[in-house]
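Hi everyone, sorry if this is the wrong subforum. Our group has a chain we'd like a structural model of before ordering constructs, and none of us has done structure prediction before. Sequence below.
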Amino acid sequence: MLNANVIKGRGAQQNVRNRFSELQHETRDDFLEYCEKEGERADNNKTLYLEVFPKTIVNKVTSPDVGMTFSMNPYQGCEHGCIYCYARNSHEYWGYSAGLDFERRILVKKDAPKLLEQLLKKKSWKAHTIVMSGNTDCYQPAEQKFKITRHCLEVFLKYKHPVSIITKNALILRDLDLLKTLAKDNLISVNMSITSLSEETRRILEPRTATSKKRLETVKTLSENGIPVNVMLAPIIPSINSHEILPLAKTVSEYGALSIAHTIVRLNGAIGAVFSDWIKKTMPDRADKVLHQIESCHGGKLNDSRYGARMRGEGNIARQINDLVRLARLKYFKGKGMPSLNTMLHQEYKDGQLKLF
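Answer:
Right subforum, don't worry. Here is the predicted structure as tokens:
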């Protein structure tokens, strides 16, 4: 039975201690007092958009098992509120909590398009696929207001540079005109995250995302317009969506996806406390079972940080999940696959521009 004290429309149900701030409690109290003086309730569940000014926007990815070399994130924090999100921990570097702050304090990088263009213009830059949303979703609700992602896509198109997008929001279809043009030169791929076909499961796991039906329709529309789509069945959570692997794979293949990818949930850093609190409030009848099964995939802990093992897990339950995904690929994706993006056009574009001088 659902706990009556659940905060509706949010994933996290509390803020957790920021491990980088010894003065967190004093800082938080000052902030609440300021809000009250300004006539704002101390905690009204409202999202705040805060502009930040980074010096660079593209990050080199050093982790060997995440499948990308460079990433960029127009926003930090994510209003989608996915309870399992590994990016929650990164909010602590900005002085916020990985819990509710991650969903309600969204940092906005309005200079992202300008910073991206500065990088792509450099003579020293060699084209590599840059992944938008390596950390937080570039099509989260803030994008409707700020349009930073769209402006970045315009930069990628201008410089003939390959880009890949990770999202779980149908808002990506707003930019179908740019995506179609990029696709003509094999400069775009999309990774759509779909964790469940059940709307009830989606709603409690990912409270402010597009519905599962809407995401499937988005996969279909993108595919029909020549934009290659990989679907991320991620994360797989034992006893929550692990039973959906085969039906999910079958469905997304029928809607036009060219491949699937997966991870087994791991609750690293502060996410362990956030997730444990959430599941005890939203699924009290199976909370202990789910937590124990997650631990069984990671050597008795909620997280395993070892490269290679952390994404796939170990033990009987992890083996069953990984075997099901392999079966799903053989059964529903035989003869399909994502294309490699074109990294040559960008250099040709720069060489052509230099000849004008």
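For your construct planning: The two ends are 70 Å apart (CA to CA). The CA atoms of residues 258 and 338 lie 6 Å apart.
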